[in-house]
Write a structure and sequence with these properties.
The complex is a heterodimer of chains A (about 325) and B (about 240). Helix content of chain A is about 35%, strand content about 0%. Chain A is mainly α and about 325 residues long. In chain B, strands 3, 4, 5, 6, 8, 9, 10, 11, 12 and 14 form a 10-stranded mixed beta sheet that branches. In chain B, strands 1, 2, 7, 13 and 15 form a 5-stranded mixed beta sheet that branches. The chains are: A mainly alpha (about 325), B alpha+beta (about 240).
């Protein structure tokens, strides 16, 4: 599981950097050309918290992806980039990225290494160019030295910048919540949480598949009706009408911290989300076949039990891990 | 002593054999490619109003495209592919390319791709011609922009045209291959041959594709494929030195 090149000679430090919980499947990202090192991950962390990467020097990745919020934004629907410009979709949490087969709500990005290009260069986010960012970093002796330590050369390139960020994103693994401990036989769930898990497996599992709590597919969960919403979703990428209003199934890990919910952040509470699934699902040509229009018919106590279960997905180890925090 | 004499002569013999065997494989030459951009029978230039046979006009501010996967076929039908074959042609900059370590021989065919093959479109952060800093990569819909043609036109809606041609998967694959016959072109050891290609840019608006109808192409799909076909059809091998 993991890094094929290093499989035969796995360094102890590498295992500590990227620790895959025993009940997780093998990651998708193999990092063959970009093996994890302590220096690479550390450089990636610094770059993640570095506002110099933005045009105005005020916005870093962490501005919209904050650790206490599961590396999603500070409980806002749309994020503010340079000059206070508003984004168009809710900032997703950066967690367990090594398992992602695509990135962004519409899956438009196909590889973790090139994921940062969009936020780094988008005019409503960080608004820079890769060449400028490289030049800014090259001008700083402490970055030249960190790149040298990570990649063997103090000649900074866009590839190495992206490699470092990919290494940091890779180590952001959340797999030590109360649920995870229960799964590994190291912890327990109370009666309501267990009932919630049972209901979850009955109604939610097919899309929010354990243990990553997503199957990475694109689905229409009925928050918009037949006329569709403002956002075409996956259709924008595939140009296929059957992908209209389809968005990537988001992970539910740390869900209590990452509100508001849905691609446009329209639902502020888990109660609102469960009410939607219970009785608010709207019919449309692309509504997922697993979801009945009108809702799943969950009772109030069933909704409450599912919410209680979802709270067990909060991973306080992850949310408080100093290795992921702002180094400055 | 007897053993060592035999060992030495065996070693010498081995060396001689391997040397003569290798010598043939080590015969390498170079190829120089020139891309001569035309507008019909006239020369193509940026920032110049050009008139198309269909009556519409255009003035280009930018024209760049990927030439990749250069491959040669020799007179024995054997194929040679340039490793890491990715080159960015830019009318405002490099319109030639030079490749070394081409096996000596007699060649009957050359081919190259306009665009970037699908594998490289899904392989993460890359360098050189494939660096995303070259502004030939979509950040929101991962994939390379194979051909970038931008400029102004009185007939274009909004007064300007922007063609970013890409798409690598399934039905939307807009990579196209140019194949040209070579008349037993001989490449000698340490030799160099020059291949002059003409690129008739006016062909972009071929097959009823008009700037007045389509001023913008910025994602994979039907229009991207049309432009890819048209552009490729405008590329011909003119002569070889």
């Amino acid at each position: 599981m993991g890094f094929a090149l290093a499989a035969c000679r796995k360094e102890p430090e590498e295992q500590a950097l990227f620790s895959v919980p025993a009940h997780f499947p093998a990651p998708h990202y193999q990092a063959l050309a970009n093996p994890l090192t302590r220096e690479g991950v550390e450089l990636g962390r610094r770059l993640f918290y570095e506002p110099l990467l933005s045009l105005t020097g005020e916005v870093s990745c962490a501005t919209c992806h904050a650790q206490p919020h599961g590396f999603a934004d500070h409980n806002v629907a749309f994020s503010k980039g340079i000059y206070g410009r508003l984004g168009r979709r809710n900032s997703p949490p950066i967690v367990n990225m090594a398992w992602n087969t695509s990135f962004m709500w519409d899956g438009g990005v196909n590889h973790i290494e090139i994921m940062p290009i969009a936020p780094l260069t988008d005019s409503v986010e960080m608004g820079e160019t890769l060449s400028n960012i490289v030049a800014k970093l090259q001008a700083q002796p402490q970055y030249r030295e960190r790149f040298r330590r990570a990649f063997g050369s103090d000649s900074i390139t866009d590839q190495r910048l992206l490699y470092a960020l990919a290494q940091f994103m890779t180590v952001l693994v959340s797999g030590d919540s109360q649920y995870d401990r229960y799964r590994q036989g190291k912890g327990s769930l109370d009666a309501q949480e267990l009932q919630g898990l049972e209901l979850f497996r009955l109604h939610c599992e097919n899309c929010h598949r354990e243990p990553l709590f997503t199957d990475y597919s694109f689905r229409n969960n009925g928050i918009d009706g037949a006329s569709g919403g403002d956002d075409p979703g996956r259709e924008r990428i595939t140009l296929s009408p059957s992908d209209r209003s389809r968005f990537k199934v988001p992970t539910l890990r740390n869900i209590a911290r990452t509100y508001p919910y849905m691609h446009d952040g329209r639902m502020t509470t888990l109660e609102a989300v469960l009410a939607h699934y219970a009785g608010g699902i709207k019919a449309s040509p692309t509504l997922d076949t697993l979801l009945p229009a009108g809702g799943l018919g969950l009772s109030a106590s069933e909704q409450a039990a599912i919410i209680a279960f979802l709270q067990t997905l909060n991973d306080y180890t992850y949310l408080n891990n100093p290795d992921f925090s702002d180094a400055f | 002593m007897k053993t060592s004499f035999f060992s030495i002569s065996a070693l010498v013999a081995l060396l001689l054999v391997s040397f003569t065997a290798c010598k043939k494989d080590n015969q390498k030459g170079s190829l120089h490619f020139e891309f001569d951009h035309k507008w019909g029978s006239s020369d193509f230039a940026l920032s110049q109003t050009l008139t198309h046979p269909n009556g519409e006009t255009a003035s280009f501010s930018r024209l760049r495209y990927y030439v990749s996967n250069i491959q040669l076929k020799n007179d024995k039908g054997e194929l040679w592919s340039q490793p890491e074959s990715y080159h960015l042609i830019d009318v405002a900059g490099a319109t030639t390319l030079h490749i070394d370590d081409v096996p000596a021989g007699k060649y009957t065919e050359i081919s190259f791709m306009i665009g970037v093959d699908s594998t490289r479109n899904v392989s993460g952060a890359q360098t050189g011609a494939l660096s995303p800093s070259n502004d030939m990569f979509w950040s929101w819909n991962s994939g390379y922009i194979f051909i970038k043609a931008e400029g102004t036109s009185n007939e274009a809606a909004g007064g300007s045209f922007t063609y970013h041609i890409g798409g690598f998967s399934g039905d939307n694959n807009a990579t196209r291959t140019v194949t040209s016959a070579l008349d037993n072109m001989q490449l000698k050891h340490k030799g160099e041959r020059e291949l002059h290609f003409m690129v008739d840019v006016s062909k972009i608006w071929d097959n009823n594709f008009r700037v007045s109808a389509t001023a913008t192409v910025h994602m994979p799909g039907m229009n991207a494929k049309t432009v890819a076909d048209n552009f490729k059809n405008g590329i011909t091998l003119d002569h070889v030195h």
